TrEMBL record:
Gene Ontology MF terms: cellulose synthase (UDP-forming) activity; cellulose synthase activity
Cellular component aspect of the GO annotation: endomembrane system; plasma membrane
Compartments where located: Endomembrane system
Keyword match Nucleus: no
Catalytic site positions: 132, 459
PROSITE patterns found in the cross-reference section: PROKAR_LIPOPROTEIN (PS51257)
Species this protein is from: Triticum aestivum (Wheat)
Name this protein carries in UniProt: Cellulose synthase-like protein H1
InterPro entries associated with the record: Cellulose_synth, Nucleotide-diphossugar_trans
Main location (coarse class): membrane
Binding site for Mn(2+): 266, 290
Transmembrane stretches, start-end: 20-39, 45-62, 529-551, 571-587, 608-627, 664-684, 704-722, 728-748
Keywords of this entry: Cell wall biogenesis/degradation, Glycosyltransferase, Membrane, Transferase, Transmembrane, Transmembrane helix
Membrane-related topology note: Multi-pass membrane protein
């Protein structure tokens, strides 16, 4: 490949000053630990502090590892123009699960933006939507969307529209003179589409004239129904004037469900989509999108192709993940879930190791890797063997469908004829067969093939499996951002999302797929393993942070001290550590172009998340491990209106922390109350001491400051204690929290 025609470039990002800061803080941490060890005789609180600080040092080290040598990939899609024949087909898979929590209009926008992406040959694209909600409204919305796409897709291409999700396009653009007529027409058609979708209700859809389209939904119950597969748009049948017209096939799938079977949530849905797309179009590349994300850069598929085709050794780019970014962002990130710094620093750093994690959405996979093919550089022998797998082998791996086995054989042997969807009705029958509940029984789906089962974070687990096989991954850096998604707002949705992630991540760490095995016996690099640990230990950080957060109140209550005294340098080390850690974080936020307020909100949310979401995640995995309960995928509520992309209208309302009676709020509420109570007790005790002895010396000034800082961190909860309605903590949560506080004080009362 001549350098003039290069498709991608791997650039190291320099960070010498940061490395020095990393080491400086590490030295302070070690100094603190040694002072602690030297002063251990001071009692129980300082043993606890030592254990926590040792843990914090470990967390710092694994974070240093991940951030150490970041890499960025530049992509040059213009250089693909001479290679358009080589461009592979792409199956675009979208999942939706619940028409209440995920409004069909949102899914429709995701799908429309995908149908309108730029790709030289639209026949190479196909879009599949999995609906775990089995909702006729979603199906209807998608059918109507396919109708609208006939206008929308040509409109976007004619005028080079940038943002191809109509709700966002119309929220952010005004009619320009040269396309005024066209704009107004499309806008009014979109408005009609919106009102049809928003006024659609299940009952009337099933009763109405064209109810024939929805007969399959009549008997269907959400958790118990046969598979439904509908081809909503067949591009091969469309009457087109020439190539470049038309838009990708659109297929609706609601997999079979029964109460008896485990459905494996999103991983199960993705595996069904992988099979349905295999028997219909069998594209060698799979793009996976959540329903709450849209294409923000129409060239995204081309950028991804630069990374998929641009290396001489494809091992370097097993999959291409676009890290999540969000739209309609709340000002200053009040819920700490826009993950800007995490994306820049941690995910960017991973690119310098074996590569970014698979994050569940906005990811381009090679179908053969999903089917378990090892990288060429490692296993030429194994690869050839897969090419010559017998039907029996294929059927044990992939299940009973002959068509699926045939399609897999094509993927393995790398002859991938592009099959138009001829004979739709028989394909639909096969698609239904591979979407049935017991199709996977006895096969390798969910294990070596497809999306892996066994964790709420199926994405990270599946990515880890791919890295363990020896593949690397890459991530394009496009401007404008490739995809935009929606971050949850409000306390309950944000904390629940963090809880699910932390649960899933710990499930992986403690489960049979724990990454150390892959490091020893497979090809997961050691530093990548440490990179995975940064996230896997999220929920394990909770008990340590909780313990550390309780030291202040405990010492105030018992009139002890856990902080090191000025006498042995310990105090200055603690102070230096506190300051340098916070300055380090602050500068990271500044470097990412964020406000000081965002920094503070994120510091605060980190403490809140670990004492609520991570703590509960920790407990629920412990309960699961000892067999007392199961973990459940709780779908995140998407409460942002898709008909209104303008964040400023919601700002004042949505920046507030909201509560409900979920147990996730109990520990934080208890810790907040505890800090107030112990400060009060401490002040009272010192006042008495001062009045009786006239002595002003305060031994606990450090502990007072710690508790004061906690109160600042937990401010949303302090407000929640007195707030009303959604903004107040419900009384039953407060009651449980008080019980915990009283119990804690009772057990700490000493002699
Ligand atoms: O039984 C289910 C549950 C969820 N989903 C879909 O999974 C996606 C992600 O769910 P969401 O509630 O939006 O979760 P997020 O926290 O936003 O998702 C992040 O975290 C998940 C893992 O916890 C990943 O699967 C996602 O890709 C990633 O974006 C959505 O499209 C859902 O429709 C299903 O299809 N079936
Ligand atoms: Mn989501």
């Amino acid at each position: 490949m001549s350098s003039a025609m290069k498709l991608q470039e791997r650039v190291s990002v320099p960070r010498t000053a940061w490395k020095l800061a990393d080491i400086f803080i590490l030295c302070l941490l070690f100094a603190l630990l040694s002072c602690r060890v030297a002063s251990l005789r001071e009692g129980g609180a300082s043993v606890a502090a030592l254990v926590c600080e040792a843990w914090f040092t470990f967390v710092w080290i694994i974070n240093m590892n991940i951030k150490w040598n970041p890499v960025r990939f530049n992509t040059y899609p213009e250089n693909l123009s001479q290679r358009t024949d080589e461009l592979p087909a792409v199956d675009m898979l979208v999942t939706t699960a619940d028409p209440e929590l995920e409004p069909p209009l949102m899914t429709v926008n995701t799908v429309l933006s995908l149908l309108a992406v730029d790709y030289p040959d639209v026949d190479k694209l196909a879009c599949y939507v999995s609906d775990d909600g089995c909702s006729p409204v979603t199906c209807y919305a998608l059918r109507e969307a396919a109708g609208f796409a006939r206008l929308w897709v040509p409109f976007c291409k004619r005028h080079g529209v940038g943002v191809r999700a109509p709700f966002m396009y119309f929220a952010s653009s005004r009619p320009e003179p040269e396309l005024a007529g066209d704009w107004t027409f499309i806008k009014s058609e979109y408005d009609k589409l919106v009102s049809r979708i928003e006024s659609a209700d299940e009952g009337s859809l099933l009763r109405h004239d064209d109810a024939a389209d929805f007969t399959e939904f009549k008997e269907a119950k959400r958790g118990d129904h046969p598979a439904i597969v509908k081809v909503l748009w067949d591009n091969s049948k469309s009457s087109r004037t020439g190539s470049g017209d038309g838009f990708p096939n659109l297929v609706y799938v609601s997999r079979e469900k029964t109460r008896k079977h485990d459905h494996h949530y999103k991983a199960g849905a993705m595996n069904v989509l992988a099979r349905v797309s295999a028997v219909m179009t069998n594209a060698p590349i799979i793009l996976n999108m959540d329903c709450d994300m849209f294409v923000n850069n129409p060239q995204v598929v081309l950028h991804a192709m630069c990374l998929l085709l641009g290396f001489n050794d494809e091992t370097c780019s097993g999959f291409v993940q676009v890290p999540q970014r969000f739209y309609a962002k709340l000002k200053d990130d009040p819920f700490g879930n826009q993950i800007e710094v995490l994306r820049e620093k941690l995910l960017g750093g991973l690119s310098g190791l074996q590569g970014i994690y698979y994050l569940g959405t906005g990811c381009f996979h090679r179908r053969k890797i999903i089917y378990g093919v090892a990288p060429p550089s490692f296993a030429a022998v194994k690869h050839e063997r897969q090419g010559s797998l017998t039907y029996e082998d294929l059927r044990t791996k992939f299940g009973a469908s002959v068509e699926l086995a045939e399609s897999a054989r094509n993927i393995y042997s790398r002859e991938i004829p592009l099959k138009p969807m001829i004979d739709i009705s028989s394909r639909i029958q096969v698609a239904k067969q591979v979407s049935s509940c017991n199709y996977e029984t006895g096969t390798h789906w969910g294990q070596e093939i497809g999306w892996s089962y066994g964790s709420m974070a199926e994405d990270i687990l599946t990515g880890q499996r791919i890295h363990s096989a020896g593949w690397k991954s890459t991530s394009p850096d496009t401007n404008p951002p490739a995809f935009l998604g929606c971050a949850p707002t409000g306390g309950p949705a944000s904390l629940t999302q963090y809880k699910r992630w932390a649960t899933g991540l710990l499930e992986i760490l403690l489960g049979p797929n724990t990454p150390i095995i892959a490091t020893i016996f497979k090809r997961l690099q050691f530093r990548q393993y440490l990179g995975y640990l940064v996230f896997y230990v999220w929920s394990m950080r909770a008990p340590f942070e909780l313990c550390y957060a309780l030291l202040g109140p405990f010492c105030l209550f018992r009139n002890h001290s856990f902080l090191l005294k000025a006498s042995n340098h310990g105090f200055s080390i603690q102070l230096a550590l506190f300051l340098s850690y916070n300055i380090y974080n602050f500068v990271e936020y500044m470097e990412c172009g964020l406000s000081a307020r965002t920094w503070w909100n994120n510091m605060r949310m980190q403490r809140i998340v670990s004492l609520s979401s991570w703590l509960l995640a920790f407990l629920s995995v412990v309960l699961k491990t000892i067999g007392l309960s199961k973990t459940v995928f709780e779908v995140t509520r998407k409460d942002k209106s898709t008909s209104d992309g303008d964040p400023s209208t919601h700002e004042t309302d949505l920046g507030w922390f909201t509560f409900d009676s979920s147990p996730v709020f109990i520990p934080m509420t208890a810790v907040a109350i505890l800090n107030i109570v112990t400060i009060a007790i401490g002040v009272w005790r010192h006042a008495i001491f001062w009045m009786t002895t006239g002595n002003h010396d305060c031994q606990n000034i450090g502990e007072f400051l710690c508790c004061g800082l906690m109160i600042l961190y937990f401010w949303p909860f302090i407000k929640g204690l007195v707030g009303r309605g959604r903004y107040g903590i419900p009384w039953n949560v407060k009651l449980k929290a008080w019980v915990i506080v009283v119990a804690f004080l009772y057990f700490c009362r000493g002699d």
